[in-house]
Amino acid sequence: MVNIKKLIVSLSLPIFVTVVIPFLIVFYIENFSLFSLTILKIIQLIIGIMLLGVGVFLVVWCIKIFYNLGKGTLMPLSKLETQNLVIIGPYRFIRNPMILGVIIILLGESLVFGSYWIFGFDIFFFILNLIYIPLFEEKGLIKRFGDDFLKYKSKVHGWIPIKILKKEKTLNFN
User: What pLDDT is recorded for position 42?
Assistant: First the structure.
């Protein structure tokens, strides 16, 4: 049975970051219009839509894994946090695939709308997470999962898929 509260909480942050803020930027700051399409803008639009698709797929995949296997949500609230360390799916390749998915969505939106403002927000969001994740999120993961997280962290890069964790559902780092 789907827990509606967990589902709403899981979707609230990605929707706010990838829909609400870009909507406000495009329609209130930039006064966006689709009426001046050129061939380059059409190509930019197609690439942007493809990036949107990849980003949405990645975010939904991560949320599903967090909910089903992690037994929680992406929100760092004590009652909603994941109960299990998630190391499968996209988490085998990088430790932050959900944030990467959001960054890809924002990049796609910046192309679709031709928005330097959304692109700037995307860069700001990425830099913010480069600071937040090691200072706060990873410290919380160490407290909750201890050596298991430290072993996972030593084997899987945060942002670049350099090493790939063996495909398994349990923590066996031998």
Answer: 82
